[in-house]
Design a protein that fits this description.
By secondary structure, this protein is an all-alpha fold. The protein has one domain (20-154): Ferritin, core subunit, four-helix bundle (Ferritin, Up-down Bundle). Helix content is 74%, strand content 0%. The chain is built from five helices and no strands. It has helices spanning 9-39, 45-72, 81-87, 99-121, 130-154. The chain is elongated, with a radius of gyration of 16 Å. The relative contact order is 0.19. The model has no long low-confidence stretch (mean pLDDT 96).
């Protein structure tokens, strides 16, 4: 069935591609943050355990919102580890780093998402899609705030 929502096919394709990357980035960060929540140790355990839980809970909600926006634009959302691995530049966590390195890894991942979201937000295609633009702005706000908090923890 054709889609006629006032966004041409080329722009919808560009937006869906960017949102698919955002979805893969977000899911990968969700998984990494949840892993760190389970495995953090050390003197900051209580505060980091709680911080990571707060962040992964919000990321889980964001994954759904991003995927549903892709569907609203008429495309299928990627939903496999294999698809996400091809779309994201965030490195999957295979070890259990110490708390400081967990924070550094999360900071780097948040900054990747901020850059990807900003890149899509600045594209000409997004000028035709206020809803996706608003979603990107909200995602950037979340990630910039969390990057700031993590930088503050790192000193």
């Amino acid at each position: 069935m054709s889609i006629n929502i006032g966004i041409n096919t080329e722009n919808r394709s560009t937006i869906v591609d960017g949102l698919s990357r955002l979805l893969a980035d977000t899911y990968t960060l969700y998984l990494k943050t949840h892993n760190y929540h389970w495995n953090v140790t050390g003197p900051q355990f209580t505060s980091l355990h709680a911080l990571f839980e707060q962040q992964y809970t919000e990321l889980a909600t964001a994954v759904d919102i991003i995927a549903e926006r892709i569907r609203a634009l008429g495309e299928f959302a990627p939903g496999s580890y294999q698809a996400f691995a091809k779309l994201t530049e965030i490195k999957e966590e295979t070890d259990v780093p110490n708390a400081e390195n967990m924070l550094k890894n999360l900071l780097e991942s948040h900054e990747v998402i901020i850059r990807h979201a900003r890149e899509l937000l600045q594209s000409e295609a997004i000028d035709t899609d206020e809803v996706s633009g608003d979603l990107l702005t909200q995602r950037m706000e979340f990630h910039e705030k969390n990057a700031w908090m993590i930088r503050s923890l790192l000193g």
